[in-house]
Amino acid sequence: MSNAPSTAATAPAPTTAAATATAAEAAGPRRRPARTRFASKAPARPPAAFLAVATAGGVAGLVLLVAVGKVLHLPVLIPPLAASAALVLAAPALPLAQPRSVVGGQLVSALVGFGALAVGGGSLWTAAVAGGLAIGAMAAARTPHSPAAATSVIVVLTQPPALRFLGLLALATVLLVLVGVLAGRSGRTARYPAYWW
Predict the structure, then answer these.
(1) Residue 179 near residue 60, CB atoms below 8 Å
(2) Locations of Low complexity compositional bias (predicted)?
(3) What is the pLDDT of residues 141-168, one digit of tens each?
(4) Per-residue pLDDT tens for 124-139?
(5) Residue ranges covered by each domain of the chain
(6) How far apart are the C-alpha atoms of 15 and 21, rounded to whole Å?
(7) Which of 120, 99, 102, 115 is nearest to 162 (CA)?
(8) DSSP conformation letters of 63-128
């Protein structure tokens, strides 16, 4: 009989951890549980009181614009102002929602729209260029307000009288800011504005 040790007898037995790792590699990449994979990364739902104040403020602000328009017999509510109201009332702490950006961004974008209209006429091509230029003009003026880019498009496509449109737009944005100030004083939302200018 030989005294040489048998290879089978001396090979170390795989440890439990190694065996588990080998089994996991054979099974393929590890999958996360379904609830984690599809979980939203969106912010948590705000409290009911915040939702109530933001919703009531949005309705009140936009209805106020319609009422002012009825008194003046002129359209005061235009679609971008509904988006402005959403920022002022539902995201009052954002820089895009501050008075400088709401009023200034809307007016800067409208001026860009009138400039583009004067140069390129009332085509869809000009409207597209005006919307893009408005983004840059607002950034340069430090009045970023995303809904206002649509205002420049509306100016090109509808060709309103410039002075009247600008006056009504200034009035409408100031009214929305005032509604935001009232909502911010309710104690249910963030204090608004974070800054005026």
Answers:
(1) yes
(2) 1-27
(3) 999 999 999 999 999 999 999 999 999 9
(4) 999 999 999 999 999 9
(5) 48-184
(6) 10
(7) 115
(8) HHHHHHHHHHTS----HHHHHHHHHHHHSTTSGGGSHHHHHHHHHHHHHHHHHHHHHH-S-HHHHH
Radius of gyration of the chain (CA): 30
DSSP per residue, 126-152: HHHHHHHHHHHHHHHHT---THHHHHH
- Using CA atoms, how far residue 137 sits from 16, 134, 141, 185, in Å, is 65, 5, 6, 32
- Dihedral sign of CA atoms 151, 153, 154, 158 in order: positive
Q: Which residue has the tokens 């608004």?
A: 192
State the Cα–Cα distance between residues 185 and 66, nearest whole angstrom. Answer: 24
Residue 177 is classified by DSSP as H
Nearest to 158 by CA among 130, 178, 182, 197: 130
pTM attached to this predicted model: 0.78
